[in-house]
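Crash report, auto-generated. Payload:
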Amino acid sequence: MNLDTQYRKAITVSDQELATRCARGRVVIIDDDAEVLAALAALIEFSGYACETYPSATSYIHVLNYNRPCFHGPCCVLCDVKMPELDGLQLQKRLAELDDTPILLMSGASGAQEAVSAFHGGALDFLIKPIDADILLAAVANALAASIERGYLRARKATLAARIASLTEREQDIARRVAAGQTNPMIAETLGIALRTVKWHRQRALEKIGVDKTTDLVRIADEVNL
Amino acid sequence: MIAFDVRTAFLILGLLYVLLPTITWVVLAGRRTLQVGLWCGGGLLLGCAAILVGLRDSIPEWITIVLASTMIRVSLLIRIQSLRLELDKPWPWRWLALAEIATLLIFLSLQYGLHNFVLRAQFNSAVMTGLLLHLALLAWRIGRDEQSSSAKWIARIYGLVVVALLFRLYSLFGETGNTNFLQEGLSAQLLTLSLVLSAIVGHFGYVGLALDRALRRELLAVAERARDEESRRLGSQIAQLDRQRSLGELSASLGHELNQPLTAILTNAQVAKRGLQAGRFDAGQLGEFLDKIIHNTQRASQIIERIRGFIRPSVTRQEQVNLQLVVAEVAELVAAEAHKRQVTLSLPAQPEPVLVMGDLIQLSQIILNVVRNALEALTAMPRREICITCHGEDGRARLRICDSGPGLTPEALTQAGKPFFTTKPNGLGMGVSISKAIAAQHGGTLTLANAREGGGAIAELNLPTLQREEPL
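Recovered output after restart:
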C-alpha cells in the first residue's frame, strides 16, 4: 500500500479482494464496443484478475493523469486498435511516453500494416478478434509476467541510480574509467594523481555501488549511465 | 380504237373514287393514321370532283369547271401531303393553301378574264401533270426506301396518268374555242381509262403499303421495347455492380463491425463454459451470459441482413419509401467506416416522415455514394463532420448532405456526374453518374454545389414527394 495510512478509511472486504486480485494482475481493457468490453471483463475477472474497463483511449489517459492506481501489482493494457478519437496505436505511443506498461492490441480486421506498426511500437502481442479465451488468457499472463519483470528491472535500476548518485565526482569519474577498461596506472597518469589515490577511490566506489568485482561494475555500466 | 362514252366512264370513275377510299378506310380500321385519313379523304374529294365533271352540261359550268378542277387539285395536294407525311417531310399547310389560291386565281383570270379556254385547259392539265408527277415520284421514293412493291405500283399507275395527261396536253395544242373535256376523243378516253386504273391500283396499292408500314411499325416498336428493356436491365446491373463496389470498399469496416458481436459471443460463451466447468456459476449468472450471447447474435445477423439487403439484385420497385428511414439505414451502413475515419455523422431528427415513391435500394445507393465521397473528402480535414437533413416542402422532398470538407474544385463542379470523370486516384468515375441517373429515374435531380463561406460540398437530392392520401 502506497497511501498514507493516516488518511485512509478502514479496509473493506471488497478492498481486500481487489488487493488480492491486483496482486495477481490488473488488466485495463479499452474498447469502444460496450458488449465486447463487458464480455472481456467477465472473462478477465473470472480468471481472478482485477479488471478496469474504459470505453475510449482518451478516457483512460484522463484517468491515468489524475488517478494513479492504488494497489500494487503487475498491470497490462488490452486495447482495441480501431477506435474513434484516439486509436489503439496512438494510445500505445502515448503510454510509452508515460510508463512501461505492457500493451496487448486487438483488432477485428487483421491488417498486416496495423500489426507491424503495433509490434514496432512495442506491443507484446496482437490479437485478432474474435479472440479465443485460452489465447487471450495466455497473452494476458505473458503481459503480466513482463510487467513483473519490468517492475524488477525498474526497481533495480532505481537502486543502482541511487547508489551511483551517492558517489563523489572523483569516484564517479574513476568508476567510469574503470568500466571503460582503463587500468589503475593509466587513470593515475591521465588524471595526474597518485596510483594509491586511484586505488583508494576505486575501492570506495565499488563499495558504494555494492559490487565486489570489476566485471560486475562493467555490467552495471551497460545497464545504467555511470 | 378505244371507244366508250367518256361521260359515263367519268361517272363510274367518280363512283370508284368514292367507293374505294371508303373501302380502304374501312379495311385499315385499327391502323388509321393521319396519313391514311388524308389519302382516303383526297380520294373521296377526287371522286366527287369526277362526278361533277361527268355531270357537265347538266349543272352550271362554274361547278363543273372551276369547282371540280379546284377539288381535283386540292385532292391531289392532300394526297401529296399524305405521302410526304409518310416520308416525314410534310409541307406546311399554309404554303399548300397559298399555292392553291394562287393557282385558282390564275385559273379564274384565264377563264373569266382572258376567256382563253384552251390556255385554261392547258394550264390546268400542266398543273395536274406536275402534281401527279410529284405524287408518283413520292410513291416511288417510298417504294424504294421501304422496298414496298405496293408503293411502286402506286407510282407506276400515277406515272401512267401523267403520260395520259401529257398526251392530252399535246392534243390541246391546235384546239381552238371552248374546250369540252368530255368531247375530246382519244386523249380524254385514255385519260379516263388511266384514271380508272389509278383508282383501282392506287387504292389496293395503298392498302398494301399501309399494311406493310403497320407491320414495320410493329416490328420497330417491338425492337424498341426490347432495347428499352435491355438498357433498363443493363442499368440495373450497373447499379448493382456499383452497390457491390461500394460495399467492397466498406468491407474492411463492415468486417470490423461484424467482428465485435462475434467477439462478444465467443467470449461470453467461453466464460459461461468455464464457469459451468468450475461449478462457480448459478443458473441466474448463466442466464445473463446466454442473454448476452443471444443479443449479440441478433446484432450480428442485423449487420449481415443490412449488407444483404443492399446488394440484393432486384428489379426496380415502386413503393412508398420514407426518405428518413433510408437515411438512417445508410447511416448504419457507413457507421463503421465513419467511425474508422473519425467522422461525425449527424442526422438532425425530424418528426414528419418524408414520403416518396421509388426503389428503396436505389435511393439508398444515391445516399451511400454521396456520403462515401464525403467521407473520403474529409480525410485530411481537421474538422470532420457530415450532416444529413431531409425535409419535404411544396411537394418536393429535399435531402441535403453537407460536409466540412474542402468542397469541389470548379472543374469537378462542372464535370461531376459525367461518366468516367473522377478526382480519385483509383476511382471509376461512375458513382455520381449512376446516382444522377437513378435520381432522374425517380423524377428528381441530384445537384452538387459548394457551401458559400469556406464550407464543404453540398449534395442535394430533390425528389417529388408522395401526397399522402386524404383519410376517407
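Post-recovery validation: Chain B touches chain A through 29 residues (CB under 8 Å).
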